[in-house]
């Protein structure tokens, strides 16, 4: 029940009151609150391992960093990079890439653009605040505010960039130019990574692209304000991504953690790098060869806000009839299909309806 025996607390009412401000988490911080509202309190079992990973994990585990330099022109480097991508995708589900071709100044300006949007006058942002998922440009706090067990301490500007670009005037002016430029760069890198992943699966280089894995691109520009009680909530609670591939630009503050060998491991902010992770749909079509791994973001303990830009590669949601299941070329008598096929529309609707509840979106597709 939303309204408990505690007469002073009615969750549904508090959720609506927060939502109705259209000011997000930043609005609470700007108001000078010293304690976070109860709607942000995570369940106790989720908070058991909220501290950063123990220091010894820094030497015990080396988070994969892959240098893409020489991939196209050097056959030896090409083979080595494919092997590194395969190993990271099988054992971590995550890796960072450097020398990926996107200029540093573009990365920095993209982060600055996200800050400019979220830190502008609240009344200017309110014009974009909505929960209408049919809109190409959406600003709100917690897409799953009314369905998740607890709200997360972040605000988000979400932009559907592909398969159909929004009208330029629909993108907020404070970040319009850099969003358009970053989109072009991230699409090129996404196509390169899908080529690498195809080859790492033993398939022809354009196999995943021919499956339209790059046809849709959803960009989430996250803003994590400082949290007065970071031990009670998350920036983003535990989840795996419901796409084929995610490319993440994070700033210097950190807080992203990956669940590796049953331990939460920090993803170190690396200047000029992008974080790459396998999504649920790529785990599905690879028949579990590549792993979509749980990850989370700790609530921001710093005095300045953390920003990140997550780019989700999937296919066109409008192509509802196409079914995605394990790739035939990867199957054999010893490796039968582990999942039934699903349409992107069905899969996405289930993911969005559940929100970030910490459970795998693939379970209902298991054979």
Q: How is this structure best described in words?
A:
The chain is α+β, with helices and mostly antiparallel strands and 367 residues long. The chain is 29% helix and 20% strand. It contains ten helices and 14 strands. Strand 8 and strand 9 form a beta hairpin. Helix 4 packs across helix 7 and helix 5 (104-119) packs across helix 7 (176-200). It is globular, with a radius of gyration of 20 Å. The relative contact order is 0.16. The model is unreliable at 52-58 (pLDDT under 50).
Count up the helices: 10
Largest sheet geometry: 8 strands, mixed
Nearest-angstrom radius of gyration?
20 Å
Order of helices and strands: HHHEHEHHEEHHEEEEEEHEEEEH
The helix content, as a percent range, equals 25-40%
Tags for this entry?
single chain, 367 residues, four-stranded antiparallel sheet, globular, alpha+beta, 20% strand, 29% helix
Structure summary:
The protein has helices at residues 11-21, 24-30, 57-60, 75-91, 104-119, 122-126, 176-200, 207-210, 280-285, 344-354; strands at residues 65-67, 94-98, 137-140, 155-162, 216-224, 234-239, 245-250, 256-260, 263-266, 274-278, 295-298, 306-314, 323-324, 342-343. With 367 residues, it is α+β, with helices and mostly antiparallel strands. The chain has an 8-stranded mixed beta sheet.
């Amino acid at each position: 029940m939303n309204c408990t025996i505690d007469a002073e607390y009615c969750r549904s009412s508090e959720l609506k009151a927060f939502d109705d401000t259209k000011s997000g988490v930043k609005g609470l911080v700007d108001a000078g609150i010293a304690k976070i509202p109860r709607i942000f309190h995570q369940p106790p079992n989720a908070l058991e391992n909220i501290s950063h990973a123990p220091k010894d994990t820094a030497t015990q585990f080396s988070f994969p960093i892959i240098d893409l330099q020489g991939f196209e022109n050097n056959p030896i480097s090409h083979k080595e990079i494919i092997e590194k991508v395969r190993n990271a995708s099988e054992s971590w589900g995550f890796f960072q890439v450097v020398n990926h071709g996107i200029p540093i100044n573009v990365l920095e300006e993209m982060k600055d653009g996200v800050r400019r949007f979220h830190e502008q006058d609240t009344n200017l942002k309110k014009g974009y605040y909505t929960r209408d998922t049919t809109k190409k440009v959406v600003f709100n706090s917690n897409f799953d505010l009314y369905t998740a067990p607890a709200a997360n301490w972040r605000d988000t500007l979400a932009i559907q960039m592909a398969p159909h670009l929004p009208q330029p005037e629909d993108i907020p002016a404070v970040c319009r130019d850099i969003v358009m430029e970053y989109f072009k760069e991230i699409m090129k890198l996404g196509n390169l990574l899908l080529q690498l992943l195809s080859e790492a699966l033993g398939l022809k280089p354009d196999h995943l692209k021919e499956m339209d894995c790059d046809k849709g691109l959803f960009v989430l520009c996250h803003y994590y304000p400082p949290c007065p009680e970071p031990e009670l909530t998350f920036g983003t609670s535990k989840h795996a991504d419901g796409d084929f591939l995610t490319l993440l630009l994070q700033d210097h503050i950190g807080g992203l953690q990956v669940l590796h060998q049953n331990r939460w491991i920090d993803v170190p902010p690396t200047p000029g790098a992008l974080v790459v992770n396998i999504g649920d749909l790529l785990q599905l079509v690879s028949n579990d060869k590549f792993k979509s791994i749980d990850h989370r973001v700790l609530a921001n303990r710093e005095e300045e806000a953390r920003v990140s830009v997550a780019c989700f590669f999937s296919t066109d949601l409008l192509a509802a009839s196409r079914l995605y299941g394990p790739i035939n070329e990867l199957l054999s008598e010893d490796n039968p299909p582990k999942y039934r096929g699903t349409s992107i529309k069905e899969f996405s609707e289930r993911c969005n309806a559940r929100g970030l509840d910490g459970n795998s979106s693939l379970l209902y597709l298991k054979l």
